[in-house]
Amino acid sequence: MTPPTTILLPTTTHSPVIEEIATQLDPSDELLIICDDESDPVADYGEGVQNVQVVVAGEPTGCSGKANALATGMDKATHDRIVWTDDDFHHPSDWLAAFHEAYDEKGPVSELYFFVGSDVLSTLLEPIYAIGGTLGTYANNKPWGGAVMFERDDLDWESFLRNLQRTVSDDQLLSEYLDTTTLKRIRQVEIGGTIRETLERHVRFTQIIHQHNPRDTIVMGLITSLLALFCLLSPVYAGVCVTLLAAGLYAYFGIYRWTALLSYPAIILQVPLMIYALSRNTFVWGGRRYRWRSKFKVEIIT
């Protein structure tokens, strides 16, 4: 028998994911839909719906909107077992039950993402996100904030909540507090929209690594530069090698997309994109512009 569980879903819209999760709840579970403001479209959802409640987080101060929403939800949670999830991927009918089964066997667990591009730039960068994101997260057992299950006693709850409310990246901070097992269970997440949005997202991804693990930024930059140099000096051999590497990685995670063929130009493009991302001092996420001065010093500009 699974324990009562609180599921935290930050969203401002009437996402179909709400219904996908609500139908999986046990009578003792609760789904907290966390929005920013009472004017958000989803703010009136849950009136009279059993086990579903809308929580208004308010405007963030000194942290990202996502971090603020999750901190508010964790403060409101009434159960010890907690699930974080997002509204941008499909939750199959056995999603929550499979999560409980995995937790009971392994302790804190996280699923895995694969970013699917929806504009020219995000599509081109799919192999980069697969190698650096999907593979890196899986190999290092990092939690993904889009699908992670843990309990209160699994981390220093109070300290984590304090720090969550003064930073940007919810899951990167969680990885510093929580030892997880990352399951080889892929959720495809569509990203992009416009080239501008993809650039802003790439800046955020790069800044997350830079602010939390500055040494990793150096290592990542060195490896990326060497790979790009290899591609430029030996285009035929390098093109075959990196394409086969990407195709093998895709197949390992059960992803069969033609974008593995883009690994060669993506690796070359990653060098100027990384320089661009590190040179930027602001980025836009969820309609807000942030200046992230250090890990726990976040300024919201608009």
- Note the total helix count: 11
The CATH topology of the domain at 1-106 and 143-179 is Spore Coat Polysaccharide Biosynthesis Protein SpsA, Chain A
What is the global morphology?
globular
Main beta sheet, described?
7 strands, mixed
Give me the CATH superfamily of the domain at 1-106 and 143-179: Spore Coat Polysaccharide Biosynthesis Protein SpsA, Chain A
Order of helices and strands: EHEEHEHEHHEHHEHHHHEEE
N- to C-terminal separation?
46 Å
Structural class: alpha/beta
Low-confidence stretches: none
Strand fraction equals 15-25%
The percent range for helix content is 40-55%
Entry keywords:
7-stranded mixed sheet; 302 residues; 10 strands; transferase; alpha/beta; 11 helices; 46% helix; 3-stranded antiparallel sheet; Spore Coat Polysaccharide Biosynthesis Protein SpsA, Chain A; transmembrane; globular
What does this structure look like?
The structure is a single chain. This protein has a domain at 1-106 and 143-179: Alpha-Beta Complex (Spore Coat Polysaccharide Biosynthesis Protein SpsA, Chain A), CATH 3.90.550.10. 46% of the residues lie in helices and 20% in strands. The protein is built from eleven helices and ten strands. The strands form two sheets. The chain has a seven-stranded mixed beta sheet with strand order 3-2-1-4-6-5-7, sandwiched between helices. A three-stranded antiparallel beta sheet has the order 8-9-10, with helices on one face. The model has no long low-confidence stretch (mean pLDDT 95).
